[in-house]
Task: inverse folding
């Protein structure tokens, strides 16, 4: 085996092992076997006094091959390979460039010394995939770096720069140069004794019970739903004992995590965030975007401007009045100051970004920009006026985007003589923080304009998801549907606080009423008014309670009162809420009934899945995974559940159909079985099959 993914080279009295498994040198079975074979070959040759192990391409081993997870194990396993490296008679020095992550760092820790190039980073991000470092990482990291550093590394999953890794003791030296040259020099230094080597497993860990206790309490509080963080702490705690026993303890904990639905959900999220870039337009040449115009200095426009500035792009901000413009500039400045405070940006970078901001009350200032994002009030008439003007002002080839969250992008594009250059770029508030960008593709949008939207998202470090045109696109369309369920649950007998707590128990960061209060209840109020005329007669109206709150001026956090009352940092009961609920139930002739938390979650999730299935069926989302990523990056969906349609597969189409049919007994208009789901139930199919193109 080996397939030339692992090669050996002898230079004088040292040997070099090179791993070459693009794109990220994941340590799949071929690499693992290749390493074992390479060590055998070097031993048989008998000439080498030290070995340098390095990688070709852009990075050191970036981890175990995640695609092998969940499949029958292929020998030799990574734990075994790390032990074989450690037991090797001839000392081995690992040379790290790019990122040594997970199984990559574990491999390096199995070696007898580590040298990093200055730009290298190391980390143990397994916890982010619902597992733990299971190839000795939890036993070797504390032996090299101490308990406290190991806990930080393993529980945060963060990428630690070489300099810090050196300070922690994870690496022994930093040398600049090409990995092969560094490996050759390091191996020679081992031979002459200027680079010390030892077996990590022979070191001891100094106990630190205080760090273990504090960290355990912190993870139980921060991640009550997750199983792997606590197991990580237990494993690190075990590193003060016998090394072999520690490895066995770690292996057992790892095997408890690997098959868990949480780990499957987190791995689905990892690959999903990459899969969404696979769009029909991916081969089109994106246009160069060297400058951006933003129309509207409200929260949205300012957030988008901030995001573009943080990506290094010059921004021209347009507002109708000088006052509005000043407010916009102040918001952007505040956003950038916030980024500095959170350590996301240096003060110098902030100053450089602000220097690239131009503010103007004249739309004509957009004549030369490469891309314009309109982010004004959600009224079709205003948008049409703006796009007519943009058509007259902007240079040929400029991309014209609307940040509308539900309006018809085709209608907006039709106001221009260049509908091929128009698309929707739907950011989520606060736009400089939220990861999601829905790229809304109109009937006439050119492929290179779609590709430009995706390229812009990448520059802004956002996750772009391709969406078709419909009211609300992917996310808000589904949201509009399942929020009705939340309102029906309250009308029928559940309390808003119970609904919130049940869904927080499921894993959402905040329940829908808390989110409503945060976003502002006036937004939903306006949407209900807008849609009132088109609401079908058979549709049950769920907005009565929320309407009453808004009509009282209780629009949530910004008015200190909504479903809850907000006092400083405290969230309290709204003492007036129950009376409103009782009145609206009485008005609708409802005798309230008791709902279990389980039923609340079931109904809410079934509603979400139903509309999500229709969004896939209608081709608004390319695949189920696109819906999943929208919810994971824009709607606070619990990542460990993988997204609504990954979660749907864990329930199964047949069960979902059964649920919908049962609910339809009460409300046949709202609860309808999506054709796609019915077909899946009949054929035994799944959303995962659709992701694979089956
Ligand atoms: N196993 C299998 N495939 C992997 C992988 C792994 N550990 N890490 C990355 N890949 C794949 C990606 O899916 C992607 O495939 P695609 O091009 O078909 O979409 C490709 O390698 C490149 O990865 P990408 O993330 O797009 O590149 P990047 O340069 O932005 O980031 C990393 C590189 C290594 C930082 C990033 O991929 C990463 O964090 N990987 C996971 C590391 C990890 O968790 N390791 C621990 C596992 S034990």
Result:
């Amino acid at each position: 085996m080996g397939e030339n993914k692992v090669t050996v080279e002898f230079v004088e009295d040292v040997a070099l092992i090179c791993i070459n498994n693009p794109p990220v040198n994941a340590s799949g079975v071929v690499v693992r076997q290749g390493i074992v074979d390479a060590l055998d070959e070097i031993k048989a040759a008998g000439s080498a006094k030290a070995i340098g192990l390095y990688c070709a391409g852009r990075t050191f081993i970036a981890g175990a091959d995640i695609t092998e997870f969940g499949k029958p194990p292929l020998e030799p396993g990574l734990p075994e390979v790390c032990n074989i490296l450690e037991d090797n008679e001839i000392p081995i020095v690992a040379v790290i460039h790019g990122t040594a992550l997970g199984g990559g760092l574990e491999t390096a820790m199995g070696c007898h010394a580590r040298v990093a190039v200055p730009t290298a980073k190391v980390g143990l991000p397994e916890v982010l995939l619902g597992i733990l470092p299971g190839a000795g990482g939890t036993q070797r990291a504390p032996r090299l770096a101490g308990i406290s550093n190991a806990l930080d590394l393993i529980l945060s999953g963060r990428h630690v720069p070489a300099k810090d890794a050196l300070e922690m003791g994870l690496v022994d030296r930093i040398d600049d140069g090409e990995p092969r040259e560094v490996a050759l020099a390091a191996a020679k230094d081992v031979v002459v004794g200027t680079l010390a080597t030892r077996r990590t497993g022979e070191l001891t860990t100094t106990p630190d019970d205080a760090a273990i206790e504090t960290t355990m309490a912190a993870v139980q509080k921060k991640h009550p739903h997750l199983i792997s963080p606590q197991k990580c702490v237990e494993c690190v705690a075990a590193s003060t004992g016998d090394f072999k026993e520690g490895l066995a303890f770690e292996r057992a904990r790892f095997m408890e995590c690997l098959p868990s639905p949480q780990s499957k959900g987190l791995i689905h999220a990892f690959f999903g965030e990459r899969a969404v870039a696979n769009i029909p337009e991916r081969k089109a040449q994106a246009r160069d975007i060297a400058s951006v115009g933003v129309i509207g200095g409200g929260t949205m426009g300012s957030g988008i401007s901030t995001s573009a500035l943080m990506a290094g792009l010059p921004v021209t901000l347009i507002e109708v009045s000088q006052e509005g413009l000043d407010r916009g500039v102040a918001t952007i400045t505040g956003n950038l100051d916030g980024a500095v405070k959170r350590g996301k940006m240096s003060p110098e970078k902030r100053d450089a970004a602000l220097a690239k901001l131009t503010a103007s009350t004249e739309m004509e200032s957009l004549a030369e920009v490469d891309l314009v994002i309109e982010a004004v009030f959600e009224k079709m008439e205003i948008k049409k006026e703006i796009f007519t003007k943009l058509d007259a002002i902007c240079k040929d080839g400029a991309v014209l985007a609307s940040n509308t969250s539900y309006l018809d992008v085709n209608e907006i594009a039709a106001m221009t003589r260049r509908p091929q250059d128009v698309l929707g770029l739907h950011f989520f508030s606060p736009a400089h923080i939220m990861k999601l960008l829905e790229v809304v593709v109109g009937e006439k949008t050119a492929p290179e304009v779609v590709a430009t939207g995706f390229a812009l998202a990448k520059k802004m470090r956002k996750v772009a998801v391709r969406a078709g045109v419909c009211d609300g696109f992917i996310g808000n369309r589904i949201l509009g549907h399942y929020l009705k369920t939340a309102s029906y649950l309250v009308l029928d007998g559940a309390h808003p606080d119970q609904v919130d707590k049940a869904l927080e128990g499921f894993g959402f960061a905040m329940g829908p009423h808390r989110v409503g209060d945060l976003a502002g209840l006036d937004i939903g109020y306006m949407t209900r008014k807008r849609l009132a005329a088109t609401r079908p007669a058979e549709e049950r109206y769920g907005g009565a309670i929320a309407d009453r709150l808004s009509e009282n001026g209780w629009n949530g956090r910004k008015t200190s009162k909504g479903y809850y009352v907000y006092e400083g940092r405290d969230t309290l009961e709204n003492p007036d809420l129950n009376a409103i609920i009782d009145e609206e139930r009485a008005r609708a002739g409802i005798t309230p009934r008791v709902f279990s938390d389980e039923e609340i979650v079931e109904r809410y999730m079934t509603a979400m899945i139903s509309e999500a299935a229709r969004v896939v069926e209608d081709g608004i989302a390319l695949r189920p995974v696109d819906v999943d990523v929208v919810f994971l990056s824009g709607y606070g969906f619990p990542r460990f559940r993988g997204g609504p349609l990954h979660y749907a597969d864990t329930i199964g189409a047949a069960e979902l159909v059964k649920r919908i049919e049962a609910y339809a007994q009460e409300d046949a208009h709202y609860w309808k079985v999506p054709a796609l789901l019915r077909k899946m139930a009949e054929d035994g199919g799944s959303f995962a099959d659709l992701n694979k193109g089956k």
Remarks:
- The longest strand covers residues 6-11.
